[in-house]
């Protein structure tokens, strides 16, 4: 076998896909689809079983949503242009906002959801790529993880050092109608899906630094193998599934209302 033939044999391995990340992302999207189904049936169509399921599963939402955001950060190291990807996703996110206003009304419309947050995070990560290269990977992961914890309660009106103290930012930050993308929702602010930059940007950036190991092909060997093809498929098509699942759920609910008498 010639050297060139050997090179052709080896080349695909150099572009080996991390299937475990696809599977984890697919699992996270799977969970989010059902969570949004519970939200739509419970808080849009006012069906009692939807409200019950929504309230039961609400504590789990930050975990599977956080998993999705962390993996998106990791994947940002495997992309050619995060700025371009982020810009495209930004327009998709606000298309979702416009559609949600017409579909469910102003009260339940998505003003700044997970797609909005991810699009801005991608662009910021792309802009700060050269800076991130100057920071040791482990330091970048640790600092962003700590900042994520510190800002996790910002929507409640304070920052936290767990089990130590709370730090209260100026109350004026919560009295404006324009700072909700940062994590300071004004009085009466409502969004059908709300993921502000604080704290989630730091989780995305923690994933970004973790993804440097992925770019260097230093992830554990088991992550390159397939374990659950259905979740892997969902993970590879996460964006289109995420964008389409909510109008599909809404359409199914509308059809059920027209065909069957559902007790609220």
The count of β-strands is 2
Helix-residue proportion = 55-70%
- Please tell me what the overall shape is: globular
User: How many H/I helical runs?
Assistant: 11
Order of helices and strands: HHHHHHHHEEHHH
What structural class do the secondary elements suggest? mainly alpha
Please compute the radius of gyration using only Cα atoms: 21 Å
Spatial strand arrangement across the major sheet: 1-2
Number of individual domains = 1
Largest sheet: 2 strands, antiparallel
**Poorly predicted parts:** 1-14
Distance between the termini: 71 Å
Strand content: under 5%
Q: Overall mean pLDDT score?
A: 89
What does this structure look like?
- By secondary structure, this protein is mainly α.
- The chain has one domain.
- Helix content is 64%, strand content 2%.
- The protein is built from eleven helices and two strands.
- The protein has a two-stranded antiparallel ribbon with strand order 1-2.
- Helix 4 crosses helix 9.
- The longest helix is centred in the first third of the chain and has 26 residues, at 19-44.
- The chain is globular, with a radius of gyration of 21 Å.
- The model is unreliable at 1-14 (pLDDT under 50).
Outline of the structure:
With 264 residues, the protein is mainly α. Helices cover 64% and strands 2% of the residues.
Features:
11 helices; two-stranded antiparallel ribbon; mainly alpha; 2 strands
List the helices and strands and how they pair.
Layout: H1 3-14, H2 19-44, H3 48-57, H4 61-75, H5 82-104, H6 114-127, H7 129-132, H8 137-151, E1 159-161, E2 165-167, H9 197-215, H10 229-236, H11 238-259
Antiparallel strand pairs: 1-2
Helix pairs in contact: 2-3, 2-4, 2-10, 2-11, 4-6, 4-9, 5-6, 6-9, 8-9
